Amino acid sequence: MSDDVTDRDYCLVGSDRPPKADGPPYAACVQCQEPTEYPESYKGITLCPVCEWREAERTSCSG
Question: Residue spans with biased composition (Basic and acidic residues) (predicted)?
């Protein structure tokens, strides 16, 4: 692999992530209503870091 590989180069669940916000206001998590890392103006499903982690655990391969 080359040194210029980023997180976006890997196959991720929900790879259509919104851009991270530079500061408030932040979008609310659709599951727990806590602030996320994403801008409030983003239209779509946003999850806070905790719910993102739980969703990744839930949808990961267990085999």
Answer: 1-10
For the entire predicted model, the pTM comes to: 0.58
Could you tell me which of 33, 41, 38, 45 has the C-alpha nearest to residue 23? 38
Question: Within a 13 Å sphere around the CA of 62, how many CA atoms are in the beta-carbon half?
Answer: 3
- Rounded alpha-carbon distances, angstroms, from residue 56 to 4, 12, 30, 41, 51: 24, 9, 15, 24, 8
Q: How far apart are CA 47 and CA 36, in angstroms?
A: 6
> For residue 17, what is the DSSP state?
P
